[in-house]
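Entry 14. Ran structure prediction on the chain below.
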Amino acid sequence: MIDGGVVMSYKFIIFIVSSIILMAGCQIEEAGTTEDELYERILELEQVVEQQSNMIEELRKPENDRRINTDIDSIVDEFSKDELIKTIERQKKSIEVLRQQLEFPSTFYPSTSMLDIIEQQQWLGELNNADWDTIRISRFDGDHEQVTIDDPILIKAADLFYLEVFDSASYPSGYQTDIVGYTYEFAKGNEIYKVRVVDRGVLKAGEPARYFRVDVNAHLIGNAFMPKPHYIQHNGLIAKMAASGAMKRGNQYAMYNAFRIQSAAYIPKEKLLTNKPSDLGEKIESLTFYYYGQELHMDAYQDYVHLHGAGEEEWYSLPYEVLSFTLNAG
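Output, structure tokens:
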């Protein structure tokens, strides 16, 4: 015979198993959940964990009738005791995560939408669109070699900051990067906004600070105008032009784009002339390359190219059509 207490335990276990199956798919709340909703979710999960733990203990009681245990095993055939234990652990982790959401709401969600971020700090959405008066560049706070650019063409070309949320946590082992880090200060009237390029295509900005994905060429603004690190060496005008951070085409436009700059600076070495040509004709095109604070120039004629700057000068035999094709491609 089975006494009433065991039958009640049997029914209780069936009820709990059914509840667990229904709750097994619960997930962590998404960004935007209110504190009251989080507290309610924590309480709900804690109740489920308590019920699950009680059920495990009930299943382990040796005095339960073997037939009842057999029936229970058939009920939980697809939701075994091991799975129940794993579910309890998952629910406990969910509770801990929810508590972290309450304690650290601003840092828990690194993927907060850009709309939310820009709503709080509108200037982040204007880095590309604002008509800045100046952009100040430095490598670190108090940098005595900081540079300020005020050329409207060069400022307009600095549209490299369409932001995508990356993360809100610091780099665990510091910045491991192959570029020089730069701080940019965008100024308009009395307003100044500071951002820092910490890695190739990674910008640190805002308050609290977040990391954003940006154009991979964002560091080239610094390469164009700040002094060259001692460990960087380029020999010859072509090499320096190809490594420049910026290029300006007359008074038309400028660009900070490594691929386009390297393409424009490509001139076969065998085209080098030993002397200046006697019949140049009119100058058709002028390019200025900005190489770590130096201005290097490329003047194009119908059949020749003149490179000069940084105390160097070279002449090349090159049809203008070749340079024009490169500049106008894409």
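DSSP finds eleven helices and 14 strands in the chain. Will compare against last week's run tomorrow.
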